[in-house]
Amino acid sequence: MGQRAVREAGALLARARRVVVFTGAGVSAESGVPTFRDALTGLWGRFDAQRLATPAAFADDPELVWGWYESRRAAVRRALPNAAHVAVAAIEARLPGTVVVTQNVDDLHERAGSVAPIHLHGSLFAPRCSACAAPAPVPPAAEEPGEGRSAPPRCGRCSALVRPGVVWFGEALPAAAFEAAVEAASACDLLLTVGTSGLVHPAAEIPLVAARLGASVVQVNPGETPLDGVADVNLRAPAAEVLPELVRAAWGVDVA
Ligand code: BV8
Ligand code: ZN
User: Fold this and answer.
1) Which residues of the chain have pLDDT under 50?
2) Omega before residue 202 within 30° of 0, cis
3) Fold (CATH) for 1-32+81-123+173-256
4) Which atom of ligand 1 approaches the CA of 198 most closely?
């Protein structure tokens, strides 16, 4: 990784007083959780995520969609947080008041020690009733997580189908989560955007809110994104490799 860019980003982090860390699927890639665009490896290779992650797909074939989320939950349960998640938790520990905003529906930030990440797109671990929205129990880890269709449970209160607790395409983001994320982005002096293609709205607005209000922006992504021109520093490297380098450059601290 270009050491000059890491030093520059480290200086911004060392000076920062209020940090927002904005993450996408790329932060979990090195934990073996496929990014959204390739979330369809294996059986799912023949489906389009953007078609499956919709209310219409669930209405049309609840067992197919529930089975897809079951298999993604099983993959996350098998995964471990990687050094990027640990580095994010280290930033929070060093700078209380750091706000983590994630588009991910996995729980790897929490398992790495992040206190209360804002989940803009919900969570694999918060199923709810599709009719009365009552929270439903998280299904236990199946011995042999199926890689196929699976019948969603029924709501204990109204017997309607239980649905994944995620935000599907065409659905509004949870207002409280989005407002909290906009508020944090408006008040930060540094926004670190990690592992997101920046293509899904309105979540993709969050880094722009921070930049517009004068915050510095550091981007971590091996690939190009629409944020390339917005970022003050682009760290073109995998997150698990460069986030520990960034923390070391800022504070001389070694992430476990
Ligand atoms: C809404 C939960 C309206 C489900 C997700 C045209 C223009 C603009 C917008 C739209 C449009 N047409 C439709 C829309 C709206 C749509 C949208 O934005 N579509 C896009 C595709 C154009 N948005 C919506 O529908 C949203 N709702 O608009 O509602 C409304 C308003 C009011 C009232 C009613 C309705 C809802 C969007 C939420 C969808 N749900 N997830 C699930 O997970 O199954 S989105 C899902 O995809 C993820 O949560 C994530 O947000 C997104 C994928 O993005 P990333 O996380 O960035 O992941 P991706 O795979 O794309 O990229 C990975 C990146 O990591 C890459 O850049 C890669 O280079 C990098 N990387 C890889 N390895 C590493 C790495 N980086 C670092 N280290 C590595 N090792
Ligand atoms: Zn119900």
Assistant:
1) none
2) yes
3) Rossmann fold (3.40.50)
4) 57
What crossing angle do the helices spanning 83-94 and 239-251 adopt, rounded to 10°? 30
Any idea where the domains of the chain sit in the sequence?
Answer: 1-32+81-123+173-256, 34-78+128-163
Q: How far is CA 191 from CA 52, 86, 188, 212, in A?
A: 31, 17, 7, 11
Say whether 34-78+128-163 and 1-32+81-123+173-256 share the same fold: no
Tell the residue nearest (CA) to atom 37 of ligand 1: 169
List residues, by chain if needed, whose CB lies under 5 Å from ion ligand 2: 129, 131-132, 134, 155, 157-158, 160
CATH code assigned to 34-78+128-163: 3.30.1600.10
The pLDDT assigned to 51 comes to 87
The catalytic site residues sit at: 121
Whether the model clears a pTM of 0.90, i.e. scores above it, the answer is: yes
